[in-house]
Amino acid sequence: MENSGWKSSASEIFYPLSAILVLLAGLALALWSLALDQRPMHNDEAVNGIKFGQLWDHGGYKYDPNEHHGPSIYYATLAVSRLTGAPQDFDQFSDRRLRFITVLFGIGLILLLPLVADGLGRKATLWAALFTVTSPAVVFYSRYYIHEILLVFFTFLALAAGWRYWRSRRIGWALLAGAGVGLMHATKETFLITLLVAALALGVNQFWNRWLDATAPLSKAPRLKLAHLVAAFAVWLGVAVLLFSSFFTNSAGPLDSARTYLPWVHRVGGDSPHIHPWSFYLHRLLFFHIAKGPVWSEA
Hints:
By secondary structure, this protein is mainly α. It is built from 15 helices and no strands.
């Protein structure tokens, strides 16, 4: 990664790439919004639609620790629907309106890139944006009314803000990273796996720079502050409690977000229809084709 120093100014971080990234985001919005209602809703999408419909029509939502994942998608849909003049009756909602929520989060991945642009470098940031716009997996899940693209967006937000804090030690970035993790928590239970892998990657990175790579520059950033980390953790918990408690109307929700790992442990042990050989996802990403269907490949 190109190292421009942790004291990069805002102009160095966000400009001049911002204009190009906004154009690419606009292109993605135009392309990804085409024919959103042409494909029938998958069962998971329909279930999410029903749960949001209960929230929209009756103003109530209660987290289920056994199924359906976290509440972020429903409250995000609620916020966007109120801002865009949605119909008063959920029966008048279209598939297109629901799927447009996930389109927005997919496009948000492009708009988050300036947070890491001074680390990646300009060329790599532009390539990252182009690959995001054209990635079959990103495009598909951005047009799919389920939790996955929200989890990716909040994960990138947390990692990018965490990286900026690591470089600058400014508490604002720590708080933003905490909010990102809280939203990951409120999106899908598997966020813990992402946190574990991110911590492992950070540990390997530090080990490499300190012990194996004699050419790696030593960080000149100030020491980590415990108060900043505590504040970030408090924001994480605050965001999670706010959403899991359905804005303090379901007192059992936050505890249920911990209880949920009991049924999930059984599924990890094999009690799940999503048990595949180790090569399953590599096959799907590298080259996948069924009769009368298109070739699917991230390559």
